[in-house]
Design goal:
Elements (H helix, E strand, L loop, with lengths): L1 E2 L2 H15 L4 E9 L4 E3 L6 E5 L1 E2 L7 E2 L3 E8 L8 E9 L5 E9 L9 E8 L6 H9 L4 E6 L2 E7 L6 E8 L3
Parallel strand pairs: 2-13
Antiparallel strand pairs: 1-7, 2-7, 3-6, 3-8, 4-8, 5-7, 8-9, 9-10, 11-12, 12-13
């Protein structure tokens, strides 16, 4: 679901969590300020789920410039596992430049804290999911990557169902 403001996006993703009810999940918000659309990467499975799955509301296929996108990623009911996944978006003008947006919300927060990992770059073929999972595992509650005039940042709260917020930015040259 797309929104014009951060407040609208936060309000809607919190309502999604209310509808979902109890259980570990990650409330995901992505803000695109790249100056062009972000497209959900056209691979067989654009979300890589290490634990859990997309909730009732799927990720947007296109995030237009200056819009906020929100969705839930939920743990699998009946399991003592959290919400751990990655989603890939590409630039509209260069589909081989891919943004990796990753989160890990543990089932047991006493043992582990929520984490995020972000990165981007040229992608030929399939991502190296083991390497991405390793980077996510060694990350913390904030992650960023800058290259040329582009920055991606991610942060995550400390709740049992935290808000993971990401922004993709084109910096002035």
């Amino acid at each position: 679901m797309l929104f014009d403001s951060e407040n609208e996006a936060i309000e809607r993703v919190n309502k999604m969590k209310e509808e979902h009810g109890n259980g570990v999940c990650t409330l995901v918000m992505i803000h695109n300020t790249l100056g062009e659309d972000l497209n959900l990467k056209s691979q067989k499975d654009t979300t890589h789920n290490w634990s859990g799955h997309m909730g009732k509301y799927p990720a947007d296929k296109i995030i237009p410039d200056n819009k906020w996108s929100v969705f839930l990623h939920v743990h699998t009911s009946g399991t003592a596992k959290g919400s751990v996944a990655a989603i890939l978006y590409s630039m509209a003008t260069s589909s081989n430049i891919v943004f990796f947006i990753c989160w890990a919300t543990p089932w047991n927060r006493a043992a582990n804290k929520p984490k995020v990992y972000v990165n981007f770059g040229k992608l030929e073929g399939e991502p190296d999911w083991d390497s991405i999972k390793g980077s996510l595992s060694s990350s913390n509650q904030y992650s960023s990557h800058s290259e040329c005039s582009i920055t991606i940042e991610g942060s995550i709260g400390d709740d049992s169902s935290p808000l993971a917020s990401y922004v993709v930015i084109r910096n002035p040259v």
